[in-house]
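pinning this so it doesn't scroll away 📌
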Amino acid sequence: MVIIPGADFELGGSELNDTRVVKTLLNLESHFKKRKPGTNVPCVVAELFDPRKVSIARRSISTSSEIIAGDRLISRLLSQSLRHSGVGPALLSLLTHREDTGLYLRGFPQFAGHSPRALINSFPKAVILGVVSMDGSEPIVQLNPDSEVILTEADRLIFLAPRYADCQPSAVPPMENPGAAELTLPPHPEPKQRRFLILGWSYKIPTLIAELLETSIGSFEITILSKIAKNDRQQALGHLEFTSRLTVRHVVGDYSLEQDLGKLNPHEFDHVLFLASGWLSNSEEADARTVMGLLLLRSLLEGHDNTPEVLTEVLDPDSAGVLGQTADVVFISPQLLSHLLAHVGLLPELNAVFDNLICSGGSEITLRMPADLGLDSNAITFAEVQAAAASRGCIGLGFYTAPYQASPRKLALNPDREQKRSLRVDDRIILLCSEGDGAGR
């Protein structure tokens, strides 16, 4: 295995980094061609920042390779978190193996001829999220597959589990292949328009807006406050095809100054997003500005009810420790990409799984009230959640416990099946749903 990581603030920044990665791939291709016939050629995993250059990178090398578009990954995580409050921590846990659980692939030829939905009770320590099939050398990922998907001997199941060893079937035989879901989730209340405030300018913003434009539900009003000139920002967004569903307002100013940030009335937005400023010379300076802006924002939000959810991107894990509970969701971009490189290096097909999990449309993670599943919030078990979700064409993933008094938010992914829980009014059930079953509603 050969892994080629990116370097955001080194070697001239993201654009020169992508050039360096493509050149490295070309050098590897030249080296591999000189090897003796029959010699094994390693798989290559490389990280780019600009998703538009992925096809160029793939054409640069003929051996088995996985190209990770860092900007697209972070932008999709941010897009999902902006569209679905509370989903960010769940996605971060899946990508980084937090909360003592992660994603694994494992094949079971003995289940050929069965639907993955028929195996819901056959894996007591793992949750089946979907299936990976191979079309030649290309993995085909189906998350939350319906009852018409039938396993073959070569297919591998996608599991959410604490360890690989926990993806082991019990003696419980598969159920009869279930038919179509008999029930549906009620429509999720959808605001007419979501208002986002983005603080700082980053080369990730065009990719983030492109992701929001890909969604089929809702409309968005985006305000961007940055010291970068409006013309430069508009030029960076010039390749996007905007619709009436999404508008962008550019404001020139410094989000670390009260007179600039305060005049935007940040308490009136649904979400506030801090992005690490790409125009600064190093990650330490970018994080320092983010911390200053975040402290100012919190002071401006004091005394207001229904304050926005605050999402913050930092580049140094130490900066996340400084933030404490100041930010609702913290994305440590280099750490996320490092985790993904490591996971894909060990199992290349996980790249396609992660990509499908966080892309717009298809299957998405959502948070729902117990009543949406026909469940009482008192003394509820995860086994009951799984059964109720399956009857509605979804997959139960766990529980989201909202912040309460001095207690921070908590996630319980793939919890004990029989442990009874009593959920408060702001607590939610975490589901994996497909469009039409309640995702994005």
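📌 and the second one:
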Amino acid sequence: MSEKSPATGRKKSKQDIPKKKKIKAVVSKNKKLPLSPREKIKTAYLKAATVFVAILIVSALSLSLFKRYKTDLKANESGTNLIERIAFGDVKVRINNDHFSHDALKEESCNNELVAYLQKNLKKGDTVISVTHDTGAYTLLMAKLIQKSGKVYFYNPSQKYVDAVKAGAAINGFENRIAAFTLGISDHGFDGLLVHKNNFPDITGKIEQKDYKIPTGYSAVTVKVSSLDGQLPNLQNINLLKINVHEDCSEIIDGAVNLIKRSEKIAVIINYRKEILSESQVFNKLSALGFKAHRIQADGSAKPTDLEEIKRSEKCFLLFKK
């Protein structure tokens, strides 16, 4: 006999009872069963591994930030990890095995306008001065072009890049054609610093005085600095002065005025970068010495230009000649 509901007075249907059972069944399914000893160990290991990975990530990020923002002063290091590459067709180049050297050599090998100019204009017996903050690959190319009777004077403030050039000279048989010096070039001699951003090679830096306060996020290498007039007081009849540095090169010109005056046929090549040279005084300084600006073209020829036209370019190779 069916029971009546006290609230409604109607008879309870048979469907009311199964609903309660279903709810109980669902609740019973959601209850967690106790873990077995093996599952407990596995869970503990997973938690420990997660914590360990998190600690490693935090440590790596902290170390990266520390390296980026710390200030460090180091001695000039030698090049010990050199590898061999071929550039400009058949020139054997030794470079440091780092990202900067690989990328720089790749870029230098693609600068066809400069290579074309050098191949057209450098000749047997020429004398060249290269003041550079690059791999030195162009120095080896120029040594090849001037042959045994010529000479290249190579100046770079970083010891390991000078070591790379000397090693490249040796494997090409150019030892007597290249005189390489670990020296920064400015308008006078002093003990200085090569200041660069952290996580960047020292060669990308700028030369500063020894008492320069190194800012946060930068490091420095101790370097010797001189002028070209101080280093080469009796040299004359230079055919080419090539400058490729990561800063305004006006002071380099100031320190080479006498050398330039002693060389009637000298040409000056500057690797122009807009962010560095757009407001530079180097144009006025060379103009005062009787030079006119030209832009090196893709075929190696040189087209007259002026500062306003140059400023519209991000980068190019400038030739100054009388």
